[in-house]
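Weekly modeling sync, notes
Attendees: S.R. (lead), two postdocs, one rotation student

Agenda item 3: backlog of single-chain predictions. S.R. asked that every request posted to the team notebook include the full sequence so nobody has to chase files. The rotation student volunteered to paste the first one in as an example of the format we agreed on. Action items at the bottom.

Example entry:
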Amino acid sequence: MNKIILSTDSFTTSENEQLIQLLFKKFKLRFSVDGQNRLILYDQFQIIYFLKLVSPWLSPAMERKAAVMLPLKPIAKRTTVYLPSTINLRKPTAEINEKLVKLYSLFCLEKKSVCLHTIFKEFEQLASIKHTMAAGYQIVIQEPYRDLLAKVRQQTELSISLLVNYCFVGLVNEVQIN
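Predicted structure, as returned to the notebook:
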């Protein structure tokens, strides 16, 4: 899905601005107003999060617009991962595979799916650095982590590089808090 459009064209500009502020304050969703005075959302991760939030409350007539689980797209054994230049690796394959265990913390055990509401805040902040990815590493991802990465990517549509970056940055943040 490329975008979400909320048909708010009968709202006033002021009402739309209040709704945008409310959606951001409550859910950290970054809607904007298009030329037809409707609310619009383009960010893919935010779209998935929004659909997960509203899908349980859609009427049967609107189920076609609900969040749809895409087929699991496998991850190649050998791939390139881009990380910020602040993360320096001496043995990229070993160090990255060692950190990928952090991805298990993204799952709700009872649902065996990613807890989007829990991780959205963290990834929303992390996504802002995706444009600063600098160092590319050719690595071999171990089998269990390929499956894990594929499941998380399927449910969030986040890139492999961003997910690997989370494994490093998340661990750094935990160390700073303690």
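Discussion: group reviewed the output briefly. The radius of gyration is 18 Å.
Action items: rotation student to repeat for the remaining queue; S.R. to check formatting next week.
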